[in-house]
Prior knowledge:
By secondary structure, the chain is an alpha+beta fold. The protein has a single domain (6-446), classed as CATH 1.10.630.10. Helix content is 48%, strand content 11%. The chain has 17 helices and 14 strands. The longest helix is centred in the middle third of the chain and has 25 residues, at 196-220. The radius of gyration is 22 Å and the shape is globular. The chain starts with 5 loop residues before the first strand and ends with a helix.
Amino acid sequence: xxxxxxxxxxxxxxxxxxxxxxxxxxxxxxxxxxxxxxxxxxxxxxxxxxxxxxxxxxxxxxxxxxxxxxxxxxxxxxxxxxxxxxxxxxxxxxxxxxxxxxxxxxxxxxxxxxxxxxxxxxxxxxxxxxxxxxxxxxxxxxxxxxxxxxxxxxxxxxxxxxxxxxxxxxxxxxxxxxxxxxxxxxxxxxxxxxxxxxxxxxxxxxxxxxxxxxxxxxxxxxxxxxxxxxxxxxxxxxxxxxxxxxxxxxxxxxxxxxxxxxxxxxxxxxxxxxxxxxxxxxxxxxxxxxxxxxxxxxxxxxxxxxxxxxxxxxxxxxxxxxxxxxxxxxxxxxxxxxxxxxxxxxxxxxxxxxxxxxxxxxxxxxxxxxxxxxxxxxxxxxxxxxxxxxxxxxxxxxxxxxxxxxxxxxxxxxxxxxxxxxxxxxxxxxxxxxxxxxxxxxxxxxx
Length: 447
């Protein structure tokens, strides 16, 4: 028996666009949950700057969309991040060019290179966390941002000395401005150095000059093949025809990796602190595991934080031609939003979804299309393994060196930063020094 396909978009809330936009910006999950209760796991919303957006929150529909033909659905060409990150950014390109660039960028994030990055990130985390104030409440997110920024600058950019310090000064304001400007394409006009877009472009020009110096230094480095940083590997990368990546391509991919992996990881760490201080039983078990040299429960905790507090709530796809999904034939020009925020809280997928329970992932990986903090399909984040390793290392270093003070304060609110969602109070915590302990090596503990 044939199924009738409906041409058009599914129904959704009838509120005015301004109110729907306000709901998405300030109370996204309650707004979307109300719509899901009424319309199911596929509905449309009407958002200022985006127009009609079809929301998907069913793993089967999400898989169907993630695995669709790249010529039918684009993720890059109409992305609001394309003008922010550059025309060559992995997040702003599609089809064959995207596959080519992805193939060139994947090798640095595989295999034994993670071990090299791990020791580097551990030292960065130790240096920062040992400066945390003892007994005084403070917001952790800013300190985590310093860790993740330096980690990317050293492991990915290969920056050191003057270049490292200059980029540490330039990139935080550039990232902040880029997140905000991505939401308002109408003001992306260079009206001089005092205009928002003008300031942003001039900051990017300063960043590009430093990146060009790093690229040229790498090309002249007689020990280039011994280096482990991602920039060095991009300089050595070759296309099928033997041609190298251009400076513009390398620059755009470097700032893309920064944008995709710096604040998102820092906010996830902030959310981890927020969750752990409100769940002392989980915190106690993690601390005991660290002392024993284990990591299985920490792995599960990282995945549970990403389930409960996905810092990027949607993966977007734009229809380039009619696309059938969920009984509808969506016309060309429709934005599809694959919702981590809804899928991760579906009680049919996760029992008691509002409960913080790392045990649901203990020695068990989440289902691919039910748990989507890194997207999916051929556009799944290439830095997912790097991000998980970084989260693991920083949490381990933190738990080894300080004791987090539990709190009965209400959950921190969600704050929208323009692209990512951060804890409203910045992952606020009071810490105390831990007494000296001898950790059992992880290999021995596993045995």
